[in-house]
Design brief:
Mean pLDDT: 79
Distance between the termini: 58 Å
Helix content: 25-40%
Largest sheet: 11 strands, mixed
Shape: elongated
Number of strands: 28
Number of helices: 19
Structural class: alpha+beta
Low-confidence stretches: 1-18, 55-60, 305-311, 362-366, 368-375, 462-496, 543-557
Radius of gyration: 29 Å
Strand content: 25-35%
Amino acid sequence: MNGQHQQQQNPTPQQPQRDANNPAGLLAIAEETLAEFLSKATGTAVDWVQMIGMKPGPDSIGIVAVSRNCSGVAARVCGLVSLEPTKVAEILKDRPSWYRDCRCIDVLSVIPTANAGTIELIYMQTYAPTTLAAARDFWTLRYTTSLEDGSLVICERSLTSSTGGPTGPPPSSFVRAEMLPSGFLIRPCEGGGSIIHIVDHIDLDAWSVPEVLRPLYESSKILAQKMTIAALHHIRQIAQETSGEIQCGGSRQPAVLRTFSQRLCRGFNDAVNGFADDGWSLMGSDGVEDVTIVINSSPNKFLGSQHNTSIFPTFGGVLCAKASMLLQNVPPALLVRFLREHRSEWADYGVDAYSAACLKASPYAVPCARPGGFPGSQVILPLAHTVEHEEFMEVVRLEGHAFSPEDVALARDMYILQLCSGIDENAVGACAQLVFAPIDESFADEAPLLPSGFRVIPLDPKSDGPAATRTLDLASTLEVGPGSTRPTSEANTNSDNLRSVLTIAFQFTFENHLRDNVAAMARQYVRSVVGSVQRVAMAIAPSRLSSQMGSKLLPHSPEALTLAQWICRSYRIYTGGELVHVDSQSGDAVLKQLWNHSDAIMCCSVKTNASPLFTFANQAGLDMLETTLVALQDIMLDKILDEAGRKILCSEFSKIMQQGFAYLPAGICISSMGRPVSYERAVAWKVLNDDDSHHCLAFVFVNWSFV
């Protein structure tokens, strides 16, 4: 019903079929497109609302607005740049240079018009952002002209049966999307430079994708980040490079570094999509459909036409293992930042070494993807970043380790070219991405790149119209419990409702006789990485009230206040000391001091014939264990202690039960992510309830830090 309602709000007038060979008919379509575009760019033909987090100011990109209650999705931005209008137009028409999802653009016909303008018929293919839905293509008319006030306009719209005009190429494996009147209005400024108005308005046929993915195709905010804002960012980048304001590290020119970032993105998109016309074909699975394996036996895929394939006589092709999954309550920016900074938490050093060895003429044998790999330290060497800091490129040096003569290949340092984008947590609707490819020490401009990586896209619930509002209100009531209904705007932004889709793709070269071995290794490795990422996601998800836990551990709930008082009172009874120092003995004050205490304080259950499980930790305790209040309850006490710690606790346990407490010496414990944590000393004590019965066991780890 909602879809029908939207179509009634935006009726498309049926036009008589225009003669495909008649320039006058195409000019009529072009003039209509121009009028509709201008009414969106400078008027209210679309119901625009300012995008949250994009307030105008001296450091802002410009004024960004997104659509509300219209067919398809739309975004608009207005900004000032220090380039002349003709230069701006030239850059914007080169869509593949700034629109990372553009696979190819073919101008099939050019018709000159008055005012030195042109009408172009364009076929464009775009990449799909995930492995879960087909890619989109567009068949459009683009009109470039000048207005009487000296402004330049480039406007564009899809040619359909309702607009008339020639029929475009058949969509084959693509889903045909529609571009509604969109474009660029470029006005010259008196002192030089230009004011740009950009409008993007498209209908991505969201009904053809799985329901869980529809928010990706119905989000004006995602469109704004990927196309509208990206275009303005790119022009500003070129403007600053042209004026010499940007200083790059090393001897690389900005244009060369920009080419590297485009090649990394394009290679990753090629891997995620695996188009048959690029040479990709599906490889049989092992019966479990969680990881897809595709292979490409074209030597140009990896080596490029400029490389002599005789250098790699046994080169069999490129293999890609990829998977997509849904994540709950993890901000995309936070996850990608963690994956970048803590590579050792998910990467296997042996597999990295295999990828690096593929750059050599004779790669060594396929390793077993050893779970956890080798503990390797990484050094990040900054290379370049864009003007707005929304994207940066770096070289990562992985320091080599050889533990035996047969591991001599692992003794060399390895280098990875890495591109990271979207890790600003305030950028609404931004896709966060980490893409990387092994390089050798020479790092030549034309070096072959085989990118792998992660992409995390927020699934922003579409909240257009009353039906969607009611659904979100209902969802928020179910999520939090009775009496907690929030306004829709708040429900949209609350991390409790945050869902995102994660896409992982890893590429490897293989020698002909080792194809099946590499496929098995790649499948096992991607499954291992998926497991690691899920653990990371659980650990870094913001601590929150879950529906299973009720309210018993939420700070300021009566149960939490009572537990805090029991913990502190029992500590005082048994040790004679004060755990927290508060003027008031009210539960609120005690809980606040306990929650914010710099030492890690945690409680665990003590049941007969069962391993002690954690039930509560303060913020420092959650940080030390690298977990959340929700995930905490799955962690057992004996899993966080090393062997020495377990022995000491066993020897002191009877003392704790009899005397009520024990001091434990300095030691090491292990976080849920497997990282060692040192502490100066610890205290364990019994926690008594109001009836002086034993409730649980509490620990405080003093002056802890990651090793």
